[in-house]
């Protein structure tokens, strides 16, 4: 119990239109259980001495209510903290409340990896490692690594026999692509001439940190190379890594550790990964049931009765009409599914109404959506509360209503002008900001824990 856990709960912008204002990412269900519940169960296995949930203003009320509803279900005390303007500033603000080494976690991961394996890697690492960051390679064929996950270009020392290296630098993939080359600093090459560039390592966003990290952040105003303003967590770790070759004296390092190739790790922070996270849990559930002999044996059913496969899950108070079938899918609670419906490889959230003769394949249906008769959808996402009209057919589409809620007058005017003039809204250059004037690239907000919606 020497570690504390800091779980960062973002809003889930990349999960739109399923998550957003009506449901924050942490509360989005995977196998009919909130993402946050899976993370807290993992923390229970790790036996952390305390868990702090860091929430955005939009998510804090919903998450607080969830934690308060089940006070006796956890053996580890849970505290709620509100996010500052960046992850770096948030860590600096929490420094006075943290008196031990700590683990930074996202709220959106699904894994079968025992937490003790990760903690043991950090314990066994060089004492000069200030942080051990964990990385993985995508093993899910249905998720395109480059197009969907977009790994950054990481510069590090060669991996040793234990699968560890030292992080030296990191550049956003799009930044390198736009510039058509990768600038490598001579100062780094003088100290680390054997540096390696990796283009397929993905962030788990799990960082095991020694307590002195917070001291450095608290003193960041005196060291521009680790200034916390406008820093995502990955940029912050990159700046820590750069200190190892920017300074003349030897400083503590950031370790890069790979997850075992056999481990499953999914960050459900985008829709394809969210769908796969549900499928993974259902596969494991069906496999475990088969091994234990608890799988439902084919039973005599009334003619025309609905069929639900062992690789599927139907929530409480949900009803299926005659001659409907559910395969490799998760159906939430209080859903109504009509007759002659075929649902395959889908996630249907709570309170959804599906009428008769509907076919859904590889779709995500938001909470309280309404699907009318004879609808055919393939690989679509439907916003919560949206009504799909009778006879509608679509493939690879996003179905949602147009909303201007949340825009003030100035924002609405700017939006109107942008649409009228057909302006290019590309990112502006951030310019130089670190001590050695290294060219900066702006990480997308999605790279941070708080991905804004």
Account of the protein in words:
With 453 residues, this protein is of the alpha/beta class. It folds into two domains: 4-271, Alpha-Beta Complex (Spore Coat Polysaccharide Biosynthesis Protein SpsA, Chain A), CATH 3.90.550; 302-399, 3 Solenoid (UDP N-Acetylglucosamine Acyltransferase, domain 1). 25% of the residues lie in helices and 24% in strands. It contains eleven helices and 31 strands. A hairpin with a 7-residue loop joins strand 9 (153-156) and strand 10 (164-171). Helix 3 (87-94) packs across helix 8. The longest helix has 22 residues, at 271-292. The radius of gyration is 24 Å and the shape is elongated. Residues 415-439 and 442-447 have low confidence and may be disordered.
Helix content: 25-40%
| Unreliable stretches | 415-439, 442-447
The H-level CATH homologous superfamily of the largest domain, spelled out, is: Spore Coat Polysaccharide Biosynthesis Protein SpsA, Chain A
Q: Any idea how many domains?
A: 2
How many beta-strand segments? 31
Q: What spatial order of strands do you see in the largest sheet? A: 5-4-1-6-12-8-13-10-9-11
Topology:
Blueprint: E1 4-9, E2 29-30, E3 33-34, H1 35-46, E4 50-55, H2 60-69, E5 78-82, H3 87-94, E6 102-106, E7 109-111, H4 115-124, E8 129-136, H5 145-149, E9 153-156, E10 164-171, H6 173-179, H7 186-191, E11 196-198, E12 202-209, H8 212-218, H9 233-246, E13 253-258, E14 265-267, H10 271-292, E15 307-308, E16 313-314, E17 319-320, E18 325-327, E19 330-331, E20 336-337, E21 342-344, E22 347-348, E23 353-354, E24 359-361, E25 364-365, E26 370-371, E27 376-378, E28 381-382, E29 387-388, E30 393-395, E31 398-399, H11 409-421
